[in-house]
Amino acid sequence: MSTGGETAELTLRWEAGSWRASGIGIDLSDPDLAALDTMIVRELARTTRVARAHLRFDMRSLPMWLRQYQAHYFNYVLRIDGGEHK
Amino acid sequence: MTNRRWTSGMLTTEDWWAVWVGLAVYAAALMSLAGLDLVGWMSRPRTWEWTNVVADFEWSKLLRSSGAAYANWHPLASWLVTYVVFAGLLSIGAYFQRLDMRRFVLGFTAIFLITWACWIVGSEMHLAAVDAVVDGTNAYRDNELSWGLQLGSGAPYLLALLTGLAIGNFAKGWAAKLRDAAKPEWFIKTAIVFLGVNLGAMTIEATDFALDLILTGAAATFVAYLFFWPLVYTLARRAFKLKRDASAVLASGISICGVSAAIATGGAIRARPIIPVTVSMLVVVFAMLELLVLPGLYTAFFPDQPIVNGAAMGMTVKTDGADAAAGALLDELMIARHLQESGVQWQAGWILSSAVLTKVWIDVFIGIWTFVLALVWVYKVEKRPGQLSVGPSEIWFRFPKFVLGYLIAWLTFLAIASLWPDQVETLDAGTGALQSPMRHMMFMLTFVAIGIITDFTKLKGMGRLAVLYAVALAFVIAPIAYAVAWIFHRGLTPPLA
Fold this sequence. Notes:
The complex is a heterodimer of chains A (86) and B (497). Helices cover 22% and strands 36% of the residues of chain A. Chain A has 86 residues and is α+β, with helices and mostly antiparallel strands. Chain A has one domain. Chain A has a 5-stranded mixed beta sheet, covered by helices on one side. The longest helix of chain A has 15 residues, at 33-47. Residues 82-86 of chain A have low confidence and may be disordered. Chain B has one domain (14-489). The model of chain B has no long low-confidence stretch (mean pLDDT 92). Chain B is 70% helix and 2% strand. A two-stranded antiparallel ribbon of chain B has the order 1-2. Chain B has helices at 14-30, 50-55, 75-96, 101-122, 125-128, 139-142, 154-170, 172-178, 184-205, 207-239, 244-255, 259-268, 274-301, 306-316, 320-342, 350-364, 366-381, 393-398, 402-419, 424-430, 432-452, 463-489, and strands spanning 43-45, 63-65, 388-389. With 497 residues, chain B is an all-alpha fold. Chain A binds chain B through residues 9, 11, 14, 33-34, 37, 41, 56-79, 82-85, and chain B through 1-4, 9, 13-15, 179-180, 183-186, 258-260, 263-264, 266-268, 270, 272-273, 276-277, 280, 319, 374, 382, 384, 386-391, 393-394, 397-398, 453. Strand 5 (75-79) of chain A pairs antiparallel with strand 3 of chain B, so a sheet runs across the interface.
């Protein structure tokens, strides 16, 4: 658990029509990814002192037959301590 | 199963395992430089005539080993070693990819048997023999054939494809069981690493021609990214009223490199995975249609433009598997037709290489393209600069790793041949099993596997998307691709065999 460090590592999945982010003690989901980002920023700002959250997509969310074509979907970084979320 | 470091996936993805398997076999083949033939056990089918075989059956009429050091082996022994070695290498990869091992081994064994049955049957003279003198003999006339399709080595490919399609569409229960081992992308990427060795040998024989193919392949990249993509995206938005995310994913799938581009673009614009999954199903089915139609079409209508046809194929047919398979089929059909009509045989592999090189160029830039697209989406579409950022590591994660194997095989072959010119003959002979029967077998496995995973009923319910795909393919991609290939390659023909 990285509550006082710079970056939180979260795993992002696509499950039953919703995005789900989990890791460092949080588990949030929403059908809209932008809304989920907002929830993550709020939750991490409230419970930790991390500056960034690094979200990494779990490829197991894609069908097995599809993974042979491309082994990466996406990763991205959310800033926790700035902008309109704070 | 997330990508964190630059080494992520090295042991867990098909892409990397194509590199490991391809280079492991290549390293074994290079031992020929030390006087050891470690790959000559590879089995290969002979061309046979059925009345002769039925009258006096011998396995040696159907199969033989590749290397002189293994000439005394029983044909079934070399075939069995071929199975054990490739099933073993691919099973190691499957284990690290955490596939269900029981299903993989059983599935691969079935696909291997189907592949070889098609290869042997497709090598029967009535299907394959061409009425022309090759190496001083005319097998067609010598065997007094009353009829023949004269498809050359394209006959086993067509048979493998049709058999795979029959399983995928008429024996769906069986196809589902084989699906864990039906890995056309893994098989074709391994074959493309082997093709790197071929390219090395071809570069030595015809350096200027090879360089011309390599450089003009780069032009295809600009066409795919800067012409096709904006045109198809605009068509999807304006004429078909698709949403921005679906238009972007579909434009990439149709214009660039098929399924891998659709997934990469879906990720770059943070689309719900259902969008690239749906587009991918469409791409797989259309790629199969292109593979079925285009090689025959180009051979029939443009028989004197082999390299134009190959390069056009590379720009038109999506997914690496379907493109390389279409290139291989085109290579065999065009060589057979030219031999039949002129009595002159073109060297095998050049038409295929023009298709594959064009595609590899396009593949290489998918990471950069989608990185740019991701930035455009963050800054211009979602308008969230500062809150959300995307790292350049995304470029590496999306880079097709099998290209590294292809380049390593090609450049090491060239380096050895340049540093020790007296070893070229040994090098060429030592890698012969890899350049021909092993590469052909991986292509054959691809043809069977791609047929098994293609289910034409998936087109149901895709009305508007399927129409857009067909319109874009027929009126944007195919004609522009052919025109560009014509500009760069018109009149070019492969060296004579």
